[in-house]
Amino acid sequence: MVLSKTDKALLSSSVGKIQAQATGSDVLARMFASFPQTKVYFVGFSDYTAKGPRVQKHGLTVMTKIIEGIQYLDSLRSFLDALSAKHAHELMVDPVNFGFLGECVLSSLAYQLPDFSPEMHCAWDKYLCEFAYLLAEKYRQTSTDGSFRKNGIFVSLNCSGNNASQHALNLLFFSPLVRFAAV
Ligand code: HEM
């Protein structure tokens, strides 16, 4: 963890000032507006603004977790273990989206906290980057034979696996360079 003592103190000092409900809804509304592709994971939502009832409910869930994590800065990996597994194996959220959400948290805090100083901004940025990295931890874990657990079924990712070979062929065939060379 790259957080300094000062970063940790700044993060802890901001906790009591954040309203998890209001910030959480605002964060999700910003994510849906700025990165509309993230809506595909929430197709059941009828209103993607901060006033949407499901945006409010899920916003609170997400922001509570982010705030709670500040109590576990020295053991963030184990704190996020189950949540990482859930996003990787059950929800199958592309981890690139964690960074998008982090950007929206920063914007929302800057908008809402009067003392969001450059130092506080830096501490939150570092924390959210670490958070996103560790939330993606389970995506990197494979079993010893190189397979990845997907909905209870092990999908082979090693080079001799049929899926991998087929994928390599597809990549080669659909590569513009190869097609250009073929004509
Ligand atoms: C980076 C910060 C994030 C945090 C802290 C977070 C936190 C959570 C939590 C606590 C839950 C509930 C888990 C449970 O019920 O056991 C959840 C569910 C979920 N998350 Fe995340 N999440 C994050 C990012 C994302 C992103 C970026 C997406 C997609 C763009 C996403 C999609 C989902 C979905 C689809 C669910 C299930 C919602 C439902 O059941 O209604 N998450 N998340």
Strands, helices and their partners?
Blueprint: H1 5-15, H2 20-34, H3 53-69, H4 76-79, H5 81-91, H6 96-112, H7 118-135, E1 147-150, E2 153-156, H8 162-174, H9 176-182
Antiparallel strand pairs: 1-2
Helix pairs in contact: 1-7, 2-3, 2-6, 6-7
The structure holds protoporphyrin IX containing FE.
Residues 38, 41-42, 58, 61-62, 65-66, 83, 86-87, 91, 93, 97-98, 101, 132, 135 line the site of protoporphyrin IX containing FE (HEM).
What does this structure look like?
The protein is mostly helical. The protein has one domain: Globin-like, CATH 1.10.490.10. It is built from 9 helices and 2 strands; from the N terminus they run αααααααββαα. The chain has helices at 5-15, 20-34, 53-69, 76-79, 81-91, 96-112, 118-135, 162-174, 176-182, and strands spanning 147-150, 153-156. It has a two-stranded antiparallel ribbon with strand order 1-2. A hairpin with a 2-residue loop joins strand 1 (147-150) and strand 2. The radius of gyration is 20 Å and the shape is globular. Mean pLDDT is 84; it is low at 143-147 and 150-183. Residues 38, 41-42, 58, 61-62, 65-66, 83, 86-87, 91, 93, 97-98, 101, 132, 135 line the site of protoporphyrin IX containing FE.
